[in-house]
Write a structure and sequence with these properties.
This protein is mainly α. Strands 1-2 form a two-stranded antiparallel ribbon. Helix content is 50%, strand content 4%.
Length: 194
């Protein structure tokens, strides 16, 4: 069991720093604007909150899709609340046991918890980079997601990774653990706006 609160709190602070004039800016997620990334975070926080609670329904059975619609007026408050709800949901030891579903994929609860942590951390970094904010992930939380982002070389696993992660990006030896996780997930840790 992992405490997701440090990760969700960090992303919540990044959300607070997003300016309205940045919503159409690009992010490290190719072809995705800040607005679309925020919409994705709004959806995935509901999906993983419900996955932790073993809820089976539209929130957990629907694969993620790009959402380009306007954000709700209260998107900052809503996203902070939903991030907190994800952390609270995974505070329950039962969330880490048994089977659940997220994004239309059936998976063990402990894997769902790690995927939730990875999604929150990676997209928090995407958002911070896109909006020029600092973002430092604790080494322990960065290391926790390495099994999720590391290719296994198994063809079925590699096929499952497609769409979730890009091709791995080389990161120098001795780089921070989270930079290694970013590289394994197909992100360039040196990505900058414009």
């Amino acid at each position: 069991m992992i405490d997701l609160r440090p990760a969700t709190a960090l992303v919540g602070s990044v959300v607070d720093g997003v300016r309205d004039d940045q919503l159409d800016d690009p992010t490290p997620c190719q072809g995705t604007s800040v607005r679309e990334l925020l919409n994705h975070l709004l959806g995935l926080t509901i999906a993983f909150r419900d996955a932790a609670g073993k809820v089976e329904g539209p929130s957990t059975s629907t694969p993620p899709a790009k959402v380009s619609t306007q954000l709700p007026d209260d998107w900052r408050e809503r996203l902070r609340r939903q991030l907190d709800e994800v952390a609270q949901a995974f505070d329950d030891p039962e969330a880490w046991h048994g089977m659940t579903m997220a994004g239309g994929v059936r998976l063990p609860g402990d894997v769902a918890g790690l995927v939730a942590l990875n999604e929150v951390q990676m997209h928090g970094w995407d958002l911070a980079r896109a909006t020029g904010q600092r973002y430092e992930v604790d080494d322990e939380l960065a290391e926790a997601v390495l099994p999720i982002v590391t290719p296994t070389g198994d063809s079925a696993d590699d096929a499952a990774r497609e769409g979730m992660f890009g091709p791995p990006v080389d990161v120098p030896e001795g780089a921070p653990i989270f930079d290694r996780a970013l590289g394994l997930a197909g992100r360039d840790p040196n990505w900058t706006r414009g």
